[in-house]
From TrEMBL:
Coiled coil: none annotated. The lineage of its organism: Bacteria, Bacillati, Actinomycetota, Actinomycetes, Pseudonocardiales. Keywords: Hydrolase. This is Alpha/beta fold hydrolase. Residues 84-340 form the AB hydrolase-1 domain. The keyword Cell cycle does not apply. It comes from Haloechinothrix salitolerans. GO terms for molecular function: hydrolase activity. InterPro entries: AB_hydrolase, AB_hydrolase_1, AB_hydrolase_fold.
């Protein structure tokens, strides 16, 4: 590990790496959370319209639902960001990222989000195709169809991060030639079954066993019963979501939003992925990311995939940026979107090798990050 390149951002109220507008944003965000129990009660969660919707055919013909978001100012995009969601999630789970990153001009970002097979509005999955290898192939199909050229940054949450690792294993030339940056959020490169909640707990709270490699118990054999329980006992499920997915007090609106996301995908689809995630071991595949700028973001209160998984990935990638989000659970992109987005801005600018106004290269990126964040401040905290 080389301290000059690896940055350990311990962020709760203020990040160790946050300066200027970034520090202001994090301070104000923390202050707002203390003053208002539900800071997103007026947020149109999951209701942002895309600029384009399309269907991409996977290699076996399964339709994959895709949304695209252009830069808000209408300018030409400098980079395409592709979001790869986790198990039981779907396109709307990237709500805060698609909202804020569209406003960037340094660089301008075109965003692409899609639903995994068996999820959201994409086609069905079978027991034979519920593999990380197939999900990686699906991601490659999306790239070829809607981002056939130009620089790419990949952002994966939980199983989405594992999918990116599988793609790096299967298509190393893509990462050597076009993938400029990778953000791995609350994910693991292996040993999923050895760290995190035991299967007996996941079985009890099976409706939210969406981030790890085992639902266990009754969910494996009788998913229709779990569907009935999920529909009949919303209060219990809400408590389970709050307990397992979040680290602190995220506000009722975000909890309800996540619950709605989890309700979209039937459990009978989710259990098909148990085996492939249990067997996930791609520490060696991480070498395929060596050509890209990499950041690893995780919450130190993640019960699903503990932060030690992020640390292990960072150990394998000594040039990666490791970000520890203090008090966050398994969905930091929903629980602490201001923090996650500020680091995504860093990654996007590094990936684009953004010039400053004087013609300098990366040496000016802190100022650029501050300039970009000032625009986001106006969105996050309107006067």
């Amino acid at each position: 590990m080389t301290p000059s390149r690896k940055l350990m951002g311990v962020v709760g109220g203020l990040g160790a790496a946050a300066t200027g507008a970034a520090a202001t944003a994090l301070t104000m965000a923390t202050r707002q959370r203390r003053l208002h129990r539900d800071p997103y009660e007026d947020e149109p969660l999951g209701q942002l319209p895309p600029d384009r919707v399309s269907t991409v055919a996977a290699d076996d013909g399964v339709p994959l639902y895709v949304e695209e978001i252009d830069p808000a100012d209408g300018g030409a995009a400098d980079v395409t960001l592709i979001g790869v969601h986790g198990i039981a999630m779907s396109v709307p789970s990237w709500h805060f990222q698609r909202r804020d990153l569209a406003a960037l001009t340094l660089p301008r970002v075109r965003q692409v989000y899609y639903d995994h097979r068996g999820h959201g509005q994409s086609g069905p999955v079978t027991a034979e195709t519920a593999t990380l290898e197939q999900l990686a192939s699906d991601l490659h199909s999306v790239i070829r169809a809607v981002a056939p050229d130009g620089p790419i940054v990949l952002m994966g949450h939980s199983v989405g991060g594992m999918t990116i690792m599988a793609l790096a294993e299967e298509q190393p030339e893509l990462f050597a030639e076009r993938v400029r940056g990778v953000s791995l959020i609350a994910t693991a490169a292996g040993e999923v079954g050895t760290r995190g909640l035991p299967k007996r707990v996941l079985s009890k709270y099976s409706p939210v066993s969406w981030g790890v490699g085992g639902i266990g118990g009754i969910a494996e054999w009788q998913p229709e019963i779990i569907e009935f329980v999920r529909a009949a006992s919303g209060q219990l499920t809400r408590r389970a979501v709050r307990r397992l997915a979040f680290g602190g007090d995220p506000g009722e609106s975000v909890v309800v939003f996540l619950l709605e996301l989890l309700d979209v995908t039937p459990v009978r689809e989710l259990v098909k992925f148990i085996g492939t995630v249990d067997g996930h071991d791609r520490y060696a595949a991480l070498a395929g990311l060596k050509h890209a700028e990499v950041q690893v973001i995780g919450g130190d209160a993640d019960l699903i995939l503990p932060f030690s998984h992020c640390e292990r990935i960072a150990d394998e990638l000594p040039d990666a940026q490791l970000v520890r989000v203090s008090g966050s659970g398994h969905v930091p992109q929903l629980e602490h979107p201001e923090i996650v987005n500020s680091y995504l801005i860093d990654l996007l600018q590094l990936a684009c090798d953004t010039d400053d106004k004087s013609g300098g290269k990366l040496g000016g990126r802190v100022g650029l990050r501050d300039e970009a964040l000032r625009g986001l401040l106006r969105r996050w905290f309107p006067s």
